[in-house]
Design a protein that fits this description.
Elements: E1 7-13, E2 16-21, E3 27-32, E4 35-40, E5 44-47, E6 56-64, E7 67-76, E8 94-99, E9 102-107, E10 116-120, E11 123-128, E12 132-135, E13 144-153, H1 162-175, H2 181-185, E14 186-195, H3 198-201, E15 216-224, E16 229-231, E17 241-243, E18 258-265, E19 273-279, E20 281-285, E21 291-296, E22 302-307, E23 313-322, E24 332-341, E25 346-352, E26 357-364, E27 371-376, E28 391-398
């Protein structure tokens, strides 16, 4: 008889999620988002009642003589027929399995990607060719955050203009000596999964107190320039330099190019979302580094739309396009789609240019600390042009 109580396979089909586990003896109970959906001795279960794109948590308990002996927790999303070509990570199926003996991650394979780098709490663990990873040496009593990173050339992208964009990006890389052709023409993808401590996750359902609803979330997205003064990549412009924000990643900093705050409060009558946006002042210097002019760009290109979701959850779609009011230059572009739930889970995904610096944070509950969910350093002002590759990211949590 197997010694490890683990899930052995997970199958995703349109309209169906099925999984099997090792038969280590006893009676098995399956819970879906806390609701009891199966009891018996069979070691398999299938689900056909779900909403595409939504995260679901399954708990499998092994019982003997009325006592829970072992627990497995799995979180996954259904397979979707509709794929978002603008952001491949948005509809990507991701599965996280937590057991006493393993934390297993798997994800829908991405087209033309042959290597993934796995990190845990910021430390590199492995590079894998398969679209799965099993961690058997993890601390069970502390929160874990796993990151999966991969790259691919724009020419392999699902975007309709991929080949033309790739050629332009390569030319861009050649003509800007402070950049590289590779950075300009390679897309980066980061998938992050935040997991509560394994010890707490694997408690029997009957021993787990009903969690208090998370009625308040806060989302913050800032763009900034790390340097104090930056050289204008347009050498023909009389504005030879621009003032930067002279800082590193910091959710509380008052220095930024743009700032967006979205507050989610389920106790608020009517719409639970409030939206604040702001644009920092732009300052240009001449060749002598004396101020030539200053102005503040319009915030009209920052638009938030509330998305319709079921009871106990809400979401938004955020678009951002803000230019430099002092010179002809591309906009700072990014998009975000997010869902926040009263049960404490969230799922956020987006993409952005490789410049300037981007930082995204959330809080879970009033008065809680900022949780960094994405931070990206600028590759230089020249990378704000749309002919260069985007950076894509996704963040979700379990626990």
């Amino acid at each position: 008889m197997p010694q490890r109580f683990e899930i052995t396979s997970v199958t995703h089909e349109i309209g169906r999620i099925a999984f099997d586990w090792e038969d280590t003896g006893g009676t098995y109970h399956v819970y879906k988002d806390g609701e009891h959906v199966y009891e018996g001795t069979s070691t398999d279960f299938q689900d056909t009642d779900f909403t595409p794109g939504k995260l679901y948590k399954y708990t499998i308990e092994r019982q003997q003589e009325g006592m829970t002996k072992d627990v497995i927790v799995m979180q996954t999303t259904p397979l979707s027929m509709e794929k978002n070509a603008d952001n491949p990570l948005q509809s990507l199926v991701m599965t996280t399995i937590v057991a006493k003996s393993q934390v297993a991650l798997s994800w829908e394979r991405m087209k033309d990607v042959d290597q993934y780098t796995i990190y845990r709490n910021g430390e590199e663990l492995a590079q894998v060719g398969a679209n799965r990873f099993i961690d058997r040496d993890f601390p069970a009593d502390e929160p874990l955050t796993y990151s999966i990173y991969c790259e691919r050339p724009i020419a392999e992208s699902e975007e309709t203009f991929n080949t033309a964009k790739s050629v332009i990006a390569k030319v861009f890389g050649i003509f800007y000596p402070k950049t590289t052709e590779k950075k300009a023409s390679v897309e980066g993808f980061t998938m992050m999964k935040s997991i509560g401590s394994v010890h707490d996750l694997l408690k029997p359902v009957e021993d787990t107190p009903t969690p208090m609803p998370v009625t308040h979330w806060h989302f913050r997205y800032k763009t900034f320039l790390e340097d104090d003064i930056l050289e204008n990549p347009n050498v023909l412009s009389p504005n030879r330099y621009f003032k930067g924000d002279n800082r590193h990643f910091d959710p509380e900093s008052a220095a930024y190019r743009t700032s967006v705050d979205i507050d989610v409060d389920y106790s608020r009558p009517g719409s639970p979302l409030t939206f604040k946006k702001d644009v920092g002042e732009s300052v240009a210097y001449g060749l002598d580094k004396k101020i030539r002019e200053r102005d503040t760009a319009s915030d009209e290109g920052i638009v938030m739309k509330q998305l319709d979701h079921g009871k106990g959850e809400t979401g938004f779609f955020l678009e951002h396009a803000v230019g430099n009011p002092l010179t002809t230059a591309p906009d700072i572009n990014y998009e975000v789609q997010a869902v926040f739930r009263e049960n404490g889970t969230c799922d956020l995904t987006g993409y952005h240019d490789q410049s300037p610096d981007h930082e995204i944070y959330i809080t879970k509950g009033k008065g809680s600390r900022w949780i960094p969910i994405h931070q990206s350093r600028s590759e230089g002002l020249a990378f704000m042009t749309e002919v260069t590759a985007f950076q894509y990211w996704r963040f979700s949590n379990l626990g």
